[in-house]
């Protein structure tokens, strides 16, 4: 049944020369839109294509365009039974997709930009071909979401889940072990559930496969949801088992040999094995008949509800002109927002803090937060008479956007490609985002992060993004400050008490940041 379901259907509909005028005109204007829209958003499509090709997390997306073409081909024999029309409510969907793109463009959030770029392509279907065609192609249109490279946001959560599964299996197998965040210590050595071991690439690929198989191979919604649940749970559990296997093998053959075995297993071969297990388990429950069409074109053409919706027609040429105007408008708005820059002082300095004095910055392992695109950066160390030492990092931006995001991926306390690794989230205070970092497998550091723009003070990257979006959509320029207070755990005391003592000495932190940045 699977072989039949995945084969190309015999095309029984009329050829191009036999199509009615409505289809030839509608297909022509739709093709024009689909040629021009990728050019209008060429930067976003090029960025996505680079991620598909360069990042192993998103390599599976390279086959998504082929899958989309196949899904449409499946529906073609029935699709030609529907008369296409230009439909003005499609402008609402187009405007919504363009708004998402604009919000991403003005805030530097690539995920939103890329979702908007994909969304405008999908929105062209109801606008230029009408609600009946859009309904017939509903699943392929929804499946286009998998063109957007998302999943990095899940890495830390999956690292934690994998570490918990792994330590449970390690303890069950009789190996003495201790867990600290994503680090597991055993007699054979210290193991880290690193970002590359989080299993995110397999999870995203499995979900994409599960959604496709649920539509193609099942009719029952219960069975569809069961398959999706399996595609969510199985790769997460399997990744934990793989991590446990590496630790278990290391107890007998050593870390280096176990890591070598893991590198052989941990690739798309591992994904293929997990995928085959899921297919094998689901095969006998496939319930879509071999000859069952994916859509019923005649039923869609006769549906009275769609007929009522279809009354809101618009001319094809006005529809194309409206798209052109909307696209030009959001590009112009994004260009104006990108040129915004709040005035900043020529230089900034770390101020004196009562009860504390400046000392040389000499960390056991070099630590310097990343603040790409910031106009000013300061890093220094304070100490008090009680022996506490606190590192202070502050960065000042004239605005937020592409290449200058205080809360962007890889920005902040955890330096990419350094001796420092994320260990676990930590409780913050005063609204800060808390992170525990481990340097060189031996030095623990607690980092607290705040963002300040206008009257807003937060440790939430999402809150910062939303505020930045609002500012730039309103063409309002305000500086943004990033503050990170950090301390190392020392034999004489933990980092948290040192940070609490320093924090108490600065007074209201929002006012302290404003004095440092000289923006009040």
Compact summary:
With 520 residues, this protein is of the alpha+beta class. 52% of the residues lie in helices and 13% in strands.
Please explain how this structure is put together.
By secondary structure, the chain is of the alpha+beta class. It folds into three domains: 2-149 and 303-338, no CATH class; 153-285, no CATH class; 356-517, no CATH class. It is built from 19 helices and eleven strands. The chain has helices spanning 2-5, 21-40, 42-54, 64-79, 90-107, 110-129, 131-136, 138-143, 155-172, 200-217, 221-253, 255-265, 268-282, 297-302, 304-310, 316-338, 461-473, 495-506, 509-517, and strands at 178-180, 183-186, 189-192, 356-359, 376-384, 389-397, 420-426, 433-439, 443-453, 456-458, 480-488. Strands 4, 5, 6, 7, 8, 9, 10 and 11 form an eight-stranded antiparallel beta sheet that branches. It has a three-stranded antiparallel beta sheet with strand order 1-2-3, covered by helices on one side. A hairpin with a 2-residue loop joins strand 9 and strand 10. Helix 2 (21-40) packs antiparallel against helix 6 (110-129) and helix 11 (221-253) crosses helix 13. It is flat and about 90 Å long. The protein starts with a helix and ends with a helix. The relative contact order is 0.10. Residues 1-9 have low confidence and may be disordered.
